[in-house]
Specification:
globular; 29% helix; 4 helices
Amino acid sequence: GLEGLILEPLKPAPPLALHNYTGQPVSLATMRGKAVLVTFVYTHCPDVCPLIVRSLAAAQRQLGSEARRLRILAVTVDPRRDTPSAIREFLRARGALGRIGYLLGTRSQLLATWKAWDIGVAADNKQLTTGHTAIVYGITASGRMAVVYPSDFTPAQIIHDVPLLARM
């Protein structure tokens, strides 16, 4: 079975259509057939975000050939400070450059996305609510939300689950 917190019943993942920090459009709907991990982070985060991103990148590296069946998406919760250059440096410092799609959007796109994914972010964006990024969602190849990982997940859990998610 899956290693994270299993979501029952499996329900379709909420829509996710933004653009990555290089300006390319990215849509969860186009990733059918792959396992997808979705998290919500920000580059100025002092604690959990760097750990989440580093662990996701490590899991992807360790997956070897299975990695082709995985996509990893990170959505900003701090669009004001998450500039393309800040994101590039944040990903590079954690071995995640080219491994994780870091997504941005307009204020209204992001508000709708956060709401759809039940991510609490304070309206003024100066004080982010705790737990804003404390989870990673595991999405099946058929586009259903199957599992949630806490921020202290291990790469081994992801490595174990990706082949399962990719077949579901």
